[in-house]
Amino acid sequence: MKIGYFTSIEGWGGSELYIRDLMLAVRQLGHEPVLFGLSGSRLMDEARALGISCVPWKEVEVLDKMDSGGNSQGVKPSDPWVIKSIALSILPRSLKTILGNVQEIFRLIQLFRRNVVDVMHVTVHGYEVAGVAAKVAGIPSVALFPISPVPGQVWWRRMLARLTARGYNRICISSRYSAREWCKELGFSDSRCEVVLNSVDVSRFRALTRTREVGSGPGFKVITVARLHPMKGLKYLIEAMHPFAGTGVTLDIVGDGDEAEELQALVQALALSPIVRFLGHSDKHIELLLDADCFVLPSVSHEGLPLALLDAMAVGLPVITSDYGPLPEVNLHQKTGLVVPARNSRDLSQAICWLVKNPNRAREMGEAGRRHVCAFDRKVMVGKFLEQYRLALGEQARVMSEA
Description:
Layout: E1 2-6, H1 14-28, E2 32-39, H2 42-49, E3 53-59, H3 80-89, H4 93-114, E4 119-123, H5 130-136, E5 141-145, H6 155-165, E6 170-173, H7 176-186, E7 193-195, H8 202-206, E8 220-225, H9 234-240, E9 249-254, H10 260-269, E10 276-280, H11 285-290, E11 294-297, H12 307-314, E12 319-322, H13 327-330, E13 337-340, H14 345-357, H15 359-372, H16 378-402
Parallel strand pairs: 1-2, 1-4, 2-3, 4-5, 5-6, 6-7, 8-9, 8-11, 9-10, 11-12, 12-13
């Protein structure tokens, strides 16, 4: 099969690694992946370097800073896009979004007709119209909803999601919790969706060796790998570190994002700079996990099934997560780690303290996690996606024959 992978995500994180690794996996099985992505994004650069065919459908948008006079630097006020922006600014946001989506649909239809694939895999991440365009272009499509529904969506965003979701032949969702929530959000029955769990390459992790035994000291290293975004609940983790000042317990935060300055200010306000480090994004986060004592992910909102959590379990770390959404599906309380109430710094602190005081149980939980994560092996995920692609092709063929 020639499989298109459509994404609208500009950044680089779990979702992008997911797409890259999936494309590599299907190519190893003899299929031809084609990335429909953003020109200038790291994902497209990596895909090209790996020899994957790429079709740019849009450039990464870089917004110029405004100068002291209120004008965008390097752009003349008479430029066409500025005039268009001023004209659009008087329209209601809902109408602008709908008009913009209609325009994008027509543009993507032409793009898909010029670059034909057998089936289109669309990562739906706040950009809903690719499935409609694929349907009009006559290409069967499979949607992946990588996160659970964003709470508090305005009515027209929810309506848009419901309408455009009907353009997909099949819908895949990354956790059982997310599947239940999306079925309610989109008005579908469970039979309309397939749960395809996120995965890790188990064989890769079996070859790795820990650089320190969990709970062996010196000190106790807590680590989190996450985008610095309110949905990850990192402020509660930072607050949970306050009782550990001067005890040898430290926290490394690996990742970057819009909440970086706010979180750094919180660390300063709590005088936690000696024990909390911000390491930024790192392509070597696995090595950092191998040198830690426990992994914490206190997410509070629209989480899918975090790859970083699976990575941490695959290297044998005991994990602490909140009880939000799909996290307890992965982290089994008192077996692979500890589950605490979301948005609760005190319980989070107590969970870290329990692991510090019980190193033998911490190691047992880490080993249990290493065994449990085998259920999330990448081969299973890839096989399920290929099955969904074939089902989408079969459904498209049936519809065309009936027409």
